Amino acid sequence: MKKLLVVLACASVLISCGPSESERLQMNGRIDSLQAVVNQRDSEIDELMGTFNEIQNGFEQINAAEGRVALYADNYEKNSKDLQENMKFIQQTMEENRKKIEELQARLKSSGINAAKLQAAVDKLTSQMKAKDKEIADLRTLLANKDIQIAELGDSLTSVVVKSEEIKKAKDEVDQIASKQDELLNTAWYVYGTKKELKERKILVDGDVLKDSSFDADYFTKIDIRNTIVIPLNSKSAKVLTTHPVDSYTLIKGANDEYTLRIKDPSAFWSVSKYLVIRVK
Q1: pLDDT tens digits, 126-162
Q2: Which of 84, 148, 165, 225 has an alpha carbon 20 to 30 Å from 199's alpha carbon atom?
Q3: CA-to-CA distance for 273 and 203, rounded, in angstroms?
Q4: Strand order in the sheet with 249-253
Q5: What are φ and ψ of residue 151, in 5° steps?
Q6: Please, what's the b/e burial string for 42-79 (b: 16 or more CB within 10 A of its CB; e: otherwise)?
Q7: Which of 102, 133, 154 is the last residue of a domain?
Q8: What is the rounded CA–CA span in Å between residue 149 and residue 233?
Q9: What is the SS3 assignment for 35?
Q10: Structural domain contains residue 167
Q11: Using CA atoms, how far apart are residues 125 and 105, in angstroms rounded to an integer?
Q12: What span, in angstroms and rounded, lies between the C-alpha atoms of 89 and 73?
């Protein structure tokens, strides 16, 4: 009986010394808060690991596609469609992995998780991506050496195609301009006629040749100075009225006593004027 009384007394003391109701409520609240933090941290880690696994799976699929491409390249004519599709898949998956790694890095930094091993794993993924870029570059070189052209996908290709078209267009425009300039540089006009004819066309005005722009330009013959060095004048009398270096040409009389203008140095002859006026009788 005495022992029972002692036990009851101790129990009474323990009950009287235990936490109050309010203290128990505060303690429970703290436990719940800590549990919420732990749950959130676990959720963040689960998401990070899920993305990590997706990236690894992407690399595995890329490896498999690379192997298929290497096989298809040996018989490109037969497997061209499959090879193209696998190269497109590799490019798409690489871009997806690249974005996921960037997102993984950003989420790891913003999460506040102090996980050195997880950061090391992400750094390893980054290194793996760089190595894979080189592998694919080598694969493209292999295909190029086999004269296999690979169609690209995505915005990068569209940009390249658009840029290529813009460059081609610009080059065509430059070529056209250059062609026109070349044509102009090598174009000249000549005319020969009697004094009366030249006056009527306002080519000869008060003794001056080509005094102003009112002359009849349609009366002139257009020539390419690279191809024209001889101009028959069909006359037994001829005089060059426009200014040209005298040693760059000669007037030659033929068997029928009719003159022909022979240009000895086209570059020098046309250096002063691209218009040639000759008076004949």
Answers
A1: 888 888 888 888 888 877 777 666 654 444 444 544 5
A2: 225
A3: 15
A4: 230-232, 259-263, 249-253
A5: -80, 130
A6: eebeeebeebbeebeebbeebeebbebbeebbeebeeb
A7: 154
A8: 60
A9: helix
A10: no
A11: 10
A12: 16
- Same-domain status, 49 and 114: yes
Give me 144's structure tokens.
């190029």
CA atoms within 13 A of residue 97's CA, in its CB half-sphere: 26
Q: How far apart are CA 165 and CA 161, in angstroms?
A: 6
Q: Which residues pair with 251 in a beta bridge?
A: 261
d(C-alpha 11, C-alpha 30), whole Å = 28
Sign of CA dihedral 28, 33, 36, 38: negative
Task: State the helix-helix crossing angle for 116-145 and 21-73, rounded to 10 degrees.
Answer: 10
CA-atom Rg of the chain in angstroms: 46
Assess contact for 203 and 210: CB atoms under 8 A: yes
Secondary structure letter of residue 156 according to DSSP: H
d(CA 129, CA 135): 10
Regarding whether 76 and 27 lie in a shared domain, the answer is yes
| Final residue belonging to a domain, choices 154, 172, 192 | 154
User: Side chain identity at 147, as an amino acid letter?
Assistant: D
Tell me whether residue 73 is in a domain. Answer: yes
Q: Do residues 25 and 150 share a domain?
A: yes
Query: Which among 148, 155, 141 has a CA at the least distance from the CA of 81?
Result: 148
Distance separating alpha carbons of residues 227 and 259, to the nearest angstrom: 20
The answer to whether the CB of 230 falls within 8 A of the CB of 264 is no
For the chain, what is the domain count? 2
Q: Tokens 């250096």 belong to which residue?
A: 271
Residue 40: pLDDT band with limits 50, 70, 90 = low
Same domain, 141 and 53: yes
Domain range enclosing 257: 183-280
* Any domain includes 9: no
